[in-house]
Write a structure and sequence with these properties.
Blueprint (H helix, E strand, L loop, with lengths): L2 H8 L3 H8 L7 H14 L5 H8 L4 E5 L9 H18 L2 E5 L4 H14 L4 E5 L6 H9 L3 E4 L9 E5 L1 H14 L5 E6 L4 H16 L9 E4 L3 H12 L7 E4 L2 H13 L9 E6 L12 E4 L2 H18 L7 E4 L2 E3 L11 H8 L13
Parallel strand pairs: 1-2, 1-3, 3-4, 4-5, 5-11, 6-7, 6-8, 8-9, 9-10
Antiparallel strand pairs: 10-12
């Protein structure tokens, strides 16, 4: 498929089509969107090798895969990378995936890129509250964008969701349903999003005049097992929660498993809300209510941002976008039941301990 096929389909000049695909500023946003959609529909693949020879640049972006933990499971990455792939295809760029096994190896990968320039820009994620990667990448002069903020990201390009607001909204919603014993299952020590989400939970309770009970805050591995183990600990409290805010859908699914293992129904005896909006949550026996973040859109925009920085020299500070997560009610968020503690007491003998799940 050649460029002129797109031009003929849209009755545009080949020059206009080329400039639209390469995001030139003299082409309107509507025309760019139309050209990119048509390119995908027609299966157009630019001759990347020819572009590299002409420009002397590697039209390749590297995505740094987060080191293994439960938060970045296949569903999460699938939605994020689907968005990346769509924009990469439309703009004729390639993707390289880096899989560092340690923080030290990740930094060494950055230094190698600086020496070889086999990729033109980077997408990083899993930002820490204090994240040395921002300083190192600036020193190495590698264009990059982060999926998430940090205290060190003021001068960087980033896309993020307002994590604190999301958990304030989530908790306030549960308060509006009549809940007062609202737990929080967090995790991911050092990650900026984890700190922000915990703050949002606390802020909502304080705004509602509900004392923050430290027993209702659990730290967990960001995994199914981590969520299940944390939920078990909460159920063993003398005054257990009637609702739980979970740091991720994965953790929430694990928490729901622990409830079912006790003969309880998620959303009936205990309300559960996750975070991410993963499609898998809609297909559970009790469809999981969740705060949805725009993963596919984020993937598209992460690619657009880093390409624009490479091709147009855009300032990183011009690309800082904060989104708001939205509540998707699927069925596990309901008012508390009147005889909740008795129902749990009748089923305590059903509890089976799940090993690990809390960093053991």
């Amino acid at each position: 498929m050649k460029l002129n096929a797109i031009a003929q389909r849209l009755k545009l000049s080949e020059s206009t089509v080329s400039r639209a695909l390469n995001d030139y500023q003299d082409i309107s946003a509507d025309t760019k969107a139309l050209v990119r959609k048509t390119a995908i529909d027609l299966g157009y693949v630019p001759n990347a090798h020819a572009r590299r020879l002409a420009s002397g640049k590697a039209d390749t972006i590297a995505y740094v895969m987060p080191r293994a933990d439960g938060q970045f499971n296949a569903s999460f990455l699938g939605e994020l990378m689907a968005g990346m792939a769509e924009t990469l295809t439309a703009r004729g760029w390639d993707l390289s995936v880096l899989v560092p096994r340690s923080a030290e190896e990740e930094i060494e990968m950055f230094r190698k890129i600086s020496r070889t320039r086999h990729v033109s820009g980077l997408i990083i994620s899993r930002t820490l509250t204090r994240d040395v990667r921002f300083k190192i990448l600036r020193e190495l002069k590698i264009p990059f964008v982060s999926h998430g903020r940090s205290l060190d990201s003021d001068a960087a390009a980033w896309i993020d969701v307002d994590n604190a607001a999301a958990f304030t909204d989530m908790t306030a919603h549960l308060v509006s349903l009549g809940h007062r014993r609202i737990a929080h299952i967090g995790g991911g020590e050092g990650y900026n999003f984890a700190v922000q989400r915990a703050h949002g939970w606390r802020d909502a309770l304080e705004q509602a005049g509900i004392p923050v009970d430290p027993d209702l805050h659990e730290e967990a591995e960001l995994s199914y097992a981590g969520g299940a183990a944390a939920m078990q600990r909460l159920l063993m409290l003398a005054d257990p929660p009637t609702a739980v805010c979970c740091i991720s859908d994965l953790v929430a699914i694990g928490a729901m498993r622990a409830l079912r293992d006790c003969g309880l129904v998620p959303g009936r005896e205990v309300s559960v809300i996750g975070y991410d909006g993963l499609e898998i949550g809609a297909w559970l026996e009790s469809p999981l209510s969740t705060m949805k973040q725009p993963l596919q859109s984020a993937g598209q925009q992460l690619v657009d941002i880093v390409i624009n920085m490479v091709e147009n020299g855009d300032a990183p500070q011009d690309h800082q976008k904060l989104y708001r997560a939205t509540l998707v009610r699927r069925g596990t968020d309901n008012p508390p039941v009147a005889d909740w503690p008795k129902r749990l007491s009748d089923n305590r003998h059903s509890v089976t301990t799940i090993p690990g799940g809390n960093g053991e």
